[in-house]
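Encode chain A's predicted structure.
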Amino acid sequence: MRISESRAKAEGRAQVRPTAEGWKQAMGDDGRPQLQFTAKKRVTQPPVHLADLTLDERAAKLKEIGLPAFRAKQLSVHYFQHYTTDPELMSDLPKDRRAEIADVMFPKLLTEVKRLATDDGRTIKFLWRLFDGSLIESVLMRYSNRITLCISSQCGCGMNCPFCATGQAGLTRNMSTAEILDQIVQANRVIAEGGLGGQKHPEERVGNIVFMGMGEPLANYKRVMNAVHRMVAEAPEGLGMSARGITVSTVGLVPAILKLAEEGVPVTFALSLHAPDDELRDEMIPVNSKWKVDEALDAAFNYYVKTGRRVSIEYALIKDMNDHGWRADLLARKLNARGRGWVHVNPIPLNPTPGSVWTASEPDVTAEFIDRLDSAGVPTTLRDTRGKEIDGACGQLAAAE
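Encoded structure for chain A:
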């Protein structure tokens, strides 16, 4: 009997094992879930957009079509501050060249396919079609004190986690810097137009970004970090956001976590752990076969040491799979062994895919899991979940299409 099964039995609980439901998990020659860090075939990338470029690069591109460098700043203001790519709204540009400028600097990146709202319009899920037909999602959420946007970084995902709807399709390609950023710009436009909650808020905008949509952000490291640098760049070069309001998550790509710690941008770092023991995590998060729990936690702790920024541990609570009391105790021991005050745990009630036998933990089990962490001195906050009524789990809308 496996260790986890004997411990679950001692608690009077079942030990459910993760297996892919309704789809066939890609397996390698070694019989393990196959990881896909790059696209299987060479794919065409989207055309270069203003948001792919620095301010100097924008000026150089405009000079190529015979326009003065100062137009780069004007176009940047239109896009990053007025959230528009419509040449008819750019009255400060030469009228006879507006359409040409828009074609060169603002190729169409995201086309809205579907928009679903819940929570009295305070949560909106967008399904976007990219230039090559790929589908990605983002979720806009208004809270009492902030507006958060959950964004995607890849078309599909190659991490092959059995409980994730996005992983069913595998990885199509990495998203470009501008495709990542355009999710934010379009969300800001929706807010300004009154699409979030029914009232116009022309001065409001997205203040928090979480890279927890489709894809593994650190598997698209270069473009994700280019996007982050553009998010924090002062207007009009970028969006002028605070790095502390940006959360970059990963399932545990250790070399990329170490690289992120040296990046010099103090984003919030989140490790999607979901199990503190290798026995279960090998099956839940296939990348654990390359970098084990302790390696991922060591890298996360290093991020705290290098940046001074407290790390978040994301933990989706799944009934009878990873919510046993002994796992809360083990998680606390592993976190405390590396020090105090460096980490915060976010248990998340599972948002299941339709028809799944897996579901969120029972309320009393959730409470006990949190109590055990709290009692061990580990700061813990139950995550507020949104969007269950609108296929809120990442990948559900795209899979349905």
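The radius of gyration is 22 Å.
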